[in-house]
């Protein structure tokens, strides 16, 4: 998706957020319905534990409510805004816990993420497209992206897991995203 | 893309994936505040990352939404940001030069218009001497000169300027009344002969080409005109294959807000 190109789904969500910003609880409920599947999916992929994922999602939805007046149209899509908040929270939760227990969470991240695809047809088609485009990346790009995003790992951890220098891991993340963007844009 | 990938800039991907820890994250955010390349990259990469999120969508547990709705009834919302500087920025991309000193929406003073007009006309004249020599193109050149003068002399003309990621600066004079702008650059990196700089209006209506920049002379490109600017448009500059592309094929090296 190029800059400035917004899907109908995003426009609907942005309209809802504008109402949420004014304190409209019905609009908030509708916005929750629009984002809950994606939020829960991504948060669950990162934290793994269902009840913790639910807690994080509650926090994220509350944050969406609080911060809706700060969302600025034209500076990125509403879905990107919401998922950025969600992923950051999920990762913070995992890392805080990691510091406490130093648990081992190895790999297999992308399998988990794609096992749990939602009922919604539109989401399912989009997931299929993303999966296909991930498949078109180099193995290193794909694994760097999925370990980082769905696995919640830092680029230093990703480098260790993949046995490559840290510089390579972060460069592959950027390359991979750029290539993914190209593929997703072309397949629209 | 021929962008350098060393240094903090290469962290843009890891940053949008939340794959950097506390100290690296703060370091990158400090860098982001200054780095034009990153601040153009980051919002775009975030959109791609959002697709990764969407691909993981799963059915939410029952009651999640009901509980969220019930819990917000007594939660106060943050006030909207009223910082006027934010109106002019996508992240820290835009550096605005106000010819009248302070102020967030500079209106051009007559003297500034004079200086600018001179600057654009010098560039236009250089171009005219080189390109528009064929008889049948004179009328086009005159028409173009007229359009440029009209924008520069518009009562609501404002000037914006920004650094280009890959090197150089861009200057825009825009008239909202005429829905037009004049675009010129200085110090852009020379491109191989099979590449060109292409200007875009990027907005809710999609990305529209505003034409290729002509080759630079003495380090300056002669003025390009973009018209039919619509609400919500940004101005973007990309590097494309020779002859241009129907839509951008690489990340913009410059994005300027126009509203």
Question: What does this protein look like?
Answer:
The complex is a heterodimer of chains A (188) and B (259). Chain A has 188 residues and is an all-alpha fold. Chain A contains 9 helices and no strands. Chain B has 259 residues and is α+β, with helices and mostly antiparallel strands. Chain B folds into 2 domains: 54 residues, Arc Repressor Mutant, subunit A (Orthogonal Bundle), CATH 1.10.10; 172 residues, no CATH class. In chain B, helix 5 packs antiparallel against helix 6. At the A-B interface, helix 2, helix 3, helix 4, helix 6 and helix 7 of A face helix 1, helix 3 and helix 4 of B.
| Gross geometry of chain A | globular
State the separation between the terminal residues of chain B, measured CA to CA: 29 Å
The count of helical stretches of chain B stands at 6
List the quaternary state of the chains: heterodimer
Order of helices and strands of chain B: HHHHHHEEEEEEEE
Report the CATH superfamily of the largest domain in chain A.
RNA polymerase sigma factor, region 2, helix turn helix motif
Radius of gyration of chain A equals 17 Å
Helical stretch tally of chain A: 9
Structural class of chain B: alpha+beta
What's the total number of strands of chain B? 8
Name the beta content range of chain B: 15-25%
Low-confidence stretches of chain B: 1-5, 84-111, 126-136
Strand content of chain A: under 5%
Layout of secondary structure:
The complex is a heterodimer of chains A (188) and B (259).
Chain A: H1 8-20, H2 25-47, H3 50-67, H4 78-101, H5 109-115, H6 121-135, H7 139-149, H8 155-162, H9 166-186
Helix pairs in contact in A: 1-2, 2-3, 2-4, 2-5, 3-4, 7-8, 7-9, 8-9
Chain B: H1 12-16, H2 22-32, H3 36-55, H4 64-72, H5 110-130, H6 138-153, E1 158-163, E2 169-175, E3 180-186, E4 195-203, E5 206-212, E6 220-227, E7 234-241, E8 254-257
Antiparallel strand pairs in B: 1-2, 2-3, 3-6, 4-5, 4-7, 7-8
Helix pairs in contact in B: 5-6
């Amino acid at each position: 998706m190029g800059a400035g190109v917004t899907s109908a789904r995003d426009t609907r969500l942005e309209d809802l957020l504008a109402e949420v910003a004014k304190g409209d609880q019905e609009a908030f409920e509708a916005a929750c319905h629009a984002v809950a599947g994606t939020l829960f999916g991504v948060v669950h992929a990162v934290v793994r534990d269902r009840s913790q994922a639910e807690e994080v999602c509650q926090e994220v939805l509350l944050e969406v409510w609080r911060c809706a007046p700060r969302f600025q149209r034209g500076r990125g899509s509403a879905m990107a805004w919401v998922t950025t908040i969600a992923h950051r929270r999920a990762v913070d939760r995992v890392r805080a816990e990691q510091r406490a227990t130093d648990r081992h969470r190895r790999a297999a991240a992308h399998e988990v993420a794609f096992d749990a695809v939602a009922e919604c047809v539109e989401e399912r088609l989009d997931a299929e497209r993303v999966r296909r485009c991930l498949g078109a990346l180099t193995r290193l790009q794909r694994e760097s992206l999925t370990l980082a995003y769905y696995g919640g790992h830092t680029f230093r951890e990703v480098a260790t897991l993949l046995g490559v220098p840290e510089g390579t891991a972060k460069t592959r993340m950027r390359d991979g995203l750029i290539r993914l963007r190209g593929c997703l844009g072309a397949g629209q | 893309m021929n962008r350098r990938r060393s240094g903090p800039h290469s962290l843009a991907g890891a940053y949008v994936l939340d794959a950097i820890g506390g100290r690296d994250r703060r370091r990158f955010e400090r860098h982001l505040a200054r780095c034009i390349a990153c601040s153009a990259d980051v919002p775009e990469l975030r959109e791609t990352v959002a697709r990764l999120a969407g691909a993981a969508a799963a059915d939410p547990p029952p009651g999640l939404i009901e509980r969220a709705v019930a819990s917000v009834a007594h939660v106060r919302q943050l006030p909207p940001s009223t910082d006027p500087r934010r109106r002019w920025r996508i992240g820290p991309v835009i550096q605005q030069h106000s010819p009248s000193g302070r102020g967030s929406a500079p209106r051009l003073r007559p003297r500034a218009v004079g200086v600018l007009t001179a600057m654009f006309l010098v560039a236009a004249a250089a171009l005219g001497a080189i390109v528009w020599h064929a008889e049948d193109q004179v009328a086009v050149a005159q028409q173009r000169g007229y359009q440029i003068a009209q924008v520069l002399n518009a009562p609501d003309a404002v000037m914006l300027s920004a650094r280009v990621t890959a090197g150089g600066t861009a200057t825009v004079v825009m008239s909202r009344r005429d829905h037009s702008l004049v675009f010129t650059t200085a110090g852009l990196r020379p491109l191989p002969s099979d590449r060109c700089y292409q200007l875009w209006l990027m907005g809710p209506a999609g990305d529209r080409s505003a034409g290729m920049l002509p080759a630079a002379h003495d380090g300056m490109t002669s003025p390009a005109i973009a018209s039919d600017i619509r609400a919500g448009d940004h101005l973007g500059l990309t590097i494309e294959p020779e002859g241009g592309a129907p839509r951008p094929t690489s990340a913009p090296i410059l994005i300027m807000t126009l509203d």
